[in-house]
Design brief:
The protein has helices spanning about 25-40, 125-140, 150-165, and strands spanning about 45, 55-60, 70-85, 85-90, 100-105, 105-115, 120-125. The protein is an alpha+beta fold and about 170 residues long. The protein binds zinc ion (ZN). Zinc ion binds next to α2.
Amino acid sequence: MIYPIVKFGDPVLEKPAETITSFDDELKKLVEDMFQSMYAAKGVGLAAPQIGISKRIAVVDITFKEEPEAKLVLVNPEIIRKEGRQRGTEGCLSLPEFREEVTRAQRVTVRAQDANGNLFEHTGEDLLARAFLHETDHLNGKLYISHISALKRDLIKRKIRKLAKAGEW
Ligand SMILES: [Zn+2]
């Protein structure tokens, strides 16, 4: 099932999501639906709050279907190590059409559970590191625009308010 993507303005995007405690068939179905929804939206990462579900789960595939082993399921993820710095442009499916330069760690290790509840650690660099940070932020109710200047953030919010008024958001 493909879920519509929740856009900025919906409070579900700005509250911490709930820890997952049961690794049942329902969770596996949700994981599958999240991958489908992410691919349908042409994204390389998706957090459950972005489909209106306030649970600590995210899916990532920075190769966009090119490499099956690049499909990652992060349940209850935590960033446990950050090294270096990278600057790069970042966007978000919940803020379509906007992109901003965001400084992030260059190399990041995430500790998470898979869909069966098994704990694992995964270290990523560059885009993958950025995806780990971006998606984990989502589960903490944080969007990438919290990492840009207040001036740029206000400008984006103002544009969104305008779009919303015109019924285009
Ligand atoms: Zn996002």
